[in-house]
């Protein structure tokens, strides 16, 4: 998932709320979601507590905004993936955007996993998580449907495009979670190898 980090250079025209969201991401990636207090975020962003409270009345409001920010950035990045003629290649490119394949995406994934876990007990975050899954599943389903409309072989799919997309997303999420919690077992090279091996098994090759 996508989350700009506060320590990285940020364009001057980014809104104060987005700058604070980036500070929240940095705190969560380094210390976990429980440390993402208004005081800690203010310190990370180099602003006063009052400046944070001007944008977010409560910690819950702040976390919901940040999670929504991550979702928007992620779905925008997936939408911008250039698609070619190969359905396996297209699915691989889209799903790779969700995997921790470099330092930036590793930090992003740590933030996303923290939010997804919190969503299990937070109705507001659960609503954002449900929308996240719906949007990304829809984007994957579009890739599958696009291949079918172009006459590409998709006969190995046994379910509807949306259900197949949900299964593909579950595979990517599982790889992401294992790579974040056990990074020594799943380095970026092994992640892409496993993903592409699964797609090859499913679709018969690239």
Automatic annotation (TrEMBL):
The record's annotation in Pfam families points to: TetR_C_6 (PF13977), TetR_N (PF00440)
Does the UniProt entry include the keyword Repressor?
Answer: yes
Looking at the record's lineage, which domain of life comes first? Answer: Bacteria
> Looking at the UniProt feature table, which residue ranges are given for the DNA-binding region?
37-56
The protein's UniProt keywords, in alphabetical order, are: DNA-binding, Repressor, Transcription, Transcription regulation
Span of domain HTH tetR-type: 14-74
Q: Which InterPro entries match?
A: BetI_C, Homeodomain-like_sf, HTH-type_TetR-like_transc_reg, HTH_TetR, Tet_transcr_reg_TetR-rel_C_sf
Example of a GO MF term: transcription cis-regulatory region binding
Under which name does UniProt file this protein?
Answer: TetR family transcriptional regulator
Origin species: Leekyejoonella antrihumi
């Amino acid at each position: 998932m996508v989350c700009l980090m506060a320590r990285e250079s940020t364009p001057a025209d980014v809104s104060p709320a987005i700058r604070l969201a980036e500070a929240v991401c940095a705190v969560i990636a380094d210390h976990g979601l429980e440390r993402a207090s208004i005081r800690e975020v203010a310190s990370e962003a180099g602003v006063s507590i009052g400046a944070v409270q001007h944008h977010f009345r409560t910690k819950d409001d702040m976390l919901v905004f940040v999670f929504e920010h991550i979702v928007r950035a992620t779905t925008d990045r997936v939408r911008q993936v250039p698609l070619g003629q190969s359905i396996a290649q297209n699915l691989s490119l889209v799903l790779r955007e969700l995997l921790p394949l470099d330092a930036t995406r590793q930090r992003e994934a740590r933030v996303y996993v923290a939010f997804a876990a919190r969503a299990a007990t937070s109705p507001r975050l659960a609503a954002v998580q449900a929308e996240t899954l719906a949007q990304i599943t829809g984007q994957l389903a579009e890739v599958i449907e696009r291949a079918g409309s172009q006459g590409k072989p998709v006969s190995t799919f046994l379910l509807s495009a949306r259900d197949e997309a949900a299964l593909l997303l579950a595979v990517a999420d599982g790889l992401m979670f294992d790579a974040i919690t056990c990074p020594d077992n799943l380095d970026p090279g092994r992640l892409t190898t496993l993903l592409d091996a699964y797609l090859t098994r499913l679709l018969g090759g690239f």
